[in-house]
Structure formats: structure tokens, C-alpha cells
Amino acid sequence: MPTSYEPGAPTPDGFIPLCVPHIQGNAWTYVKECLDTNWVSSVGPFVERFERQVAAYTGAQYGVATVSGTAALHIALLVAGVQPDDEVLVSTLTFIAPVNAIRYCGAWPIFIDAEPQYWQLDPQKVADFLEQDCAWEAGELRNRSTGRRVKAILPVHILGHPVNIDPILALARVYHLPVIEDATEGLGACYQERRVGSLGDIACFSFNGNKIITTGGGGIIVTDQEVWARKARYLTTQAKDDPLEYIHYEIGFNYRLTNMQAALGCAQMEQLDEYIAIKRRIAQQYQDAFQDTPGITPMPEAPWASSTFWLYTVLVDETEYGMDSRALLGKLNSAGIQSRPLWQPIHLSPAHAGHAYECPVAENLYRRALSLPCSVGLTEAQQAKVIAAVRE
Ligand SMILES: *Cc1c(COP(=O)(O)O)cnc(C)c1O
Fold it and tell me: Which atom of ligand 1 is nearest to the CA of 70?
């Protein structure tokens, strides 16, 4: 049996992949329209339509489509004013992309631990850092131990569940820090009645192949601030100041999404609510199956949250379950079922090694968590097979 599975690759016989794209509806019509009209590249009607569609969905005023979620994060940090040698507070329990984006700006991550209940960025740890480790100097907030300016907070909503954002927004107001949401895994999730992506000052989504909807590869920045949106559009299109003479006042980036990808995105957006309903149904079935399975903790959902359960994940207690999460991964793999641990917390990542951090909650979750198959196209029979293999 294969040990890894790339999203989009053909599924080997009987193999149950973790999370693969689900292409339906108008995808063929819209992409064909691009081919038929020759609008295949980074200009075209679907780009703007996709931007309007995603912005409207999340409740934001403006959308700027990008080649990837990582590119969106890079630009969002720049327009929020992050400069070389600044510091940005970021979740340590995350996929690495937001931390890389901080480094692309020449800035430095301050890693914040997760909370144990819902596995998201811990607002209390954000407060502790700002209150205990920072000081105001000449109108600027500085990290007392490094002397660097602290410039932004980048909470990552992981696995389709929102961060407990209100306490973080309150701190951000007190300390005058913009909040940049990494909502790449959270499209459609709600915090109270508000959609993820409209909670902070600016937010980023990803449409990579493993996300809840996909453009093959792509991302978007959403914000209510017109100046930021305009700046983001400028920076993602090579900062062109004169379209005829090609005069540039700044160093820009080639980060625009193509019309063909946006066309696929428009079709996928039409499916989003249905996909979320399916994801929630898959989660409910796992929840029912695992609530009395010793040593398996089903994925939580806070009373103030509506999760999309983008990547359905359980915690494995080695003593109670009889094996640890990695042994369960091996067991599932030999049954033809793909599963995956969470990411190594980034404060431990060799790529971002430096200062020693204490993030015991993230480390504990990293040891115990295992994500299970949860594609939108997962069949009842496939899910039953996964459930049986875990409970067996
Ligand atoms: C997927 C993801 C990204 C980056 O998205 P790409 O489109 O793959 O660049 C960023 N942050 C998190 C948390 C992600 O899961």
C-alpha cells in the first residue's frame, strides 16, 4: 500500500486518501469559457468575479486573488505594515506557510502555544507575551528581550475551527496591533455569527488542492480597508505604476491568480455550502463512532464556533488506546487508509530554529493527533471501513 498520496493523483484501488479535491457543477463550463475566449492568464472576468464572490461570502468589502495562500499571507503582512526586523505573534501549531511568510518580509516569528480545548492559538498566551515580555518605547511596542518592534498578530484558524478571537482582538486594540487572520483552513467556519476572514483587519484563504474548495492552486486576501486592498492589488501585479511605459516605484511580485484558476474557483464557491454540510456530516459520524472508543478523543467544536471540520482529526491516548498515534497511522496504512499527524510545531522546526520556546500544549497535541480521511467525496462504505479499522 502507498504510504503517501498526493491530492489529485488517481486513487489506487480501494485506497482511501486523506483529503482530495471534489470537482463538480459548473467547473467544466467555466474553464471551457476561458479556453474558448482566450482569457487564460492573469486578466479576465473570472478573476474579478471570484474576488467578489469570496469577499461577499466572508463578509469582507474587498478581495484580491493570489497564486497561493502563502503569497496572500506575504502580501497581507506587507500591507499591514510589517517591516524587516519586526516581530509577529503567530500560532506555533500550524502548517509552516504563515511563518515562512513572516520571514519573507524579513520579520521574525514569536511563537504562541495552543490551548488544549480546541487546539487553537491560546489568547491567554498572547496576553502573557504582550503584558510580560513587551514594553512601550517612544510610542512603539518592543520585545524587551530582543529590542525588536512587535508589529502584528497572526492567528491561524486550524483544521476548519476558528480561534477564540474576541480576546485577541481586544488585546490588539490595546496594543495597536493589526490582526492578520490565516484563514486558509477555515473558509466557511464561523466565530459566533461572524465568518472567519472577517474577524481581524485582513485575512487570507488558500485554494490549494487539499483545502475545502480548490482552484488547483491559489489564494485570496480579503479586507474591509480599501487602501490595503488597493496596495495588495498593486504589489501582487508587479507594482506597475504606468501600464504603458512600465514604470515601477516599488518592488512588486508576480502573485496574481489566473482567469482559468479563478473560473474553477467560481464553480467551487457555488458548491461550498454543500461541501461544508458534508464535512459536518462526516464529522458527526466519526463523533458518534468514537465517543465510546477508549483512548480516542473526537475532534472538538467550541460552543461559540461553527467548524467546517476541514481536516477531521482525533487525539490518541497511548495508554488507553493501546498504541500511540504513529502506530495507529501504520495500522491504518496497512489497511489502505491514509492518515496524517499534525505538523511539527514550528517552534521546533529546524527551518525556524533559534530562540527556545515553551509550548507544551502544541507539543502534546502534535504527539497525539491524527487526521483521518474526510474528503467531500468520502463514501459511507469508506468511512465505515475507517471507523472499523480505528475501533478494531
Ligand atoms: C494551506 C495553508 C497555507 C498556504 O496555502 P497555499 O495555498 O498552499 O500556499 C497557509 N497556512 C495554512 C495554515 C495552511 O494550511
Answer: 9
